[in-house]
Amino acid sequence: MDKPTALVVFAHHRADSLTAVLARRTADRLEAAGYRVDLLDLHAEGFDPRNRVEDEPDYGDRDKRYSPEVHAHAERLLAADLVAAVFPVWWFGLPALLKGWIDRVWNYGLTYGRREKPMAGKRMLWLGLAGLAEDDPNSDLTRALLDGALRRGISEFCDVTDVHTEALFDSEAKGLEGADRERHYAALLARADVAVDKLLAG
């Protein structure tokens, strides 16, 4: 019980996806570093990303009780000393499943809006897998997502100031075969490992 807790959350409908592989790899690396890991597979656990009236924030009542699902997930989030989100970048944004988790769980009175700042002191990593190449003219949109909407707009807004981001480009290894493809994926895994190590270093 003395171990710090790491929440690794990922959103992909295929258990054999690169996203899932990287989430499990991240969890293993954090566990090896001495963390108790809570691996949250949003799809496998059946999380519903759709918002509903009961989960709308009431800015006049920071103690509002939301749905049991939201409070159960908020407890896991707030119990974590470190949070790592591993996800595919789709249309230069979050997949709906992860966006819905943020919308519903990172809610007023739970993660922000309190004098005591419940998320302060946590560390966080946003690890995004993008299908486009790193030298693609639109790769700046992926970096803007990670360093703008996610780092500043979500983490820092909720008082998490130790935030790391990493974009893994060409996640589909387009045009690569055989040994070249294997080397490409090995390089992506290595970059992910470095990102996790930076997170651990603080």
UniProtKB/TrEMBL annotation:
GO MF annotations in UniProt: NAD(P)H dehydrogenase (quinone) activity
Record family assignment: Belongs to the NAD(P)H dehydrogenase (quinone) family.
Highest taxon, organism lineage: Bacteria
The name this protein goes by in its record: NADPH oxidoreductase
Sequence ranges assigned to domain Flavodoxin-like fold in this UniProt record: 6-186
GO cellular component: cytosol
Keywords: Oxidoreductase
Pfam families: Flavodoxin_2
